[in-house]
Q: What sequence folds into this?
């Protein structure tokens, strides 16, 4: 197993270049859109973390106790959902069949629990807003060759990153891994037949 490596902080002109590197995703092809989002999450993960930390700090400075409570609730719900997906067949089946919906259910459960504690505004601005910014960038940013190469190395198992571990636990990389494995098996068959 590869050791976990922190991805490099991408330069600003790569992270946020001119409008020619951004395009509206094709909403009719959800698999392609999901692939773009996952690839960008993997490639720009350190940039996204830095952006989220800035927003967390801004909201955290105004409401530190509520922000800590919100972070704790989201972490516990996330850990509980991952545990449930590993230990309960029904949850595992749901996660496998609907990985994107599984992520939304985790977020809705977090929102519901925060509303019980009265910290909905902190949840929206401190946790949901950074996630919305990350999702918007990952959806709109077109991938480049370096992005694709880095992601293939992670999927094949040559390297591991924190975002890769998170996406894997949410079931977002299983489809990509299966496609890569099929591709590699087909290439091996071609080589053997030649």
A:
């Amino acid at each position: 197993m590869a050791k976990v490596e922190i991805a490099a902080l991408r330069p600003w002109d790569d992270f946020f270049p001119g409008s020619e590197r951004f395009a509206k995703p094709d909403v009719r092809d959800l698999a392609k859109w999901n692939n773009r989002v996952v690839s960008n999450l993997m490639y720009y993960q350190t940039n996204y973390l830095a952006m989220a930390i800035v927003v967390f700090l801004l909201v955290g400075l105004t409401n530190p106790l509520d922000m800590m409570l919100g972070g704790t609730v989201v972490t516990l719900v996330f850990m509980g959902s991952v545990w449930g997906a590993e230990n309960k067949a029904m949850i595992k089946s749901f996660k496998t069949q609907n990985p994107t919906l599984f992520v939304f259910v985790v977020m809705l459960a977090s929102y519901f629990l925060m509303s019980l504690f009265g910290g909905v505004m902190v949840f929206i601005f401190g946790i949901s807003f950074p996630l919305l910014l990350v999702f918007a960038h990952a959806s709109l940013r077109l991938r480049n060759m370096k992005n694709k190469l880095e992601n293939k190395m992670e999927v094949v198992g040559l390297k591991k990153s924190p975002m890769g571990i998170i996406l894997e636990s949410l079931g977002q990389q299983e489809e990509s891994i299966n496609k890569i494995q099929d591709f590699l098996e087909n290439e091996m068959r071609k080589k053997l037949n030649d």
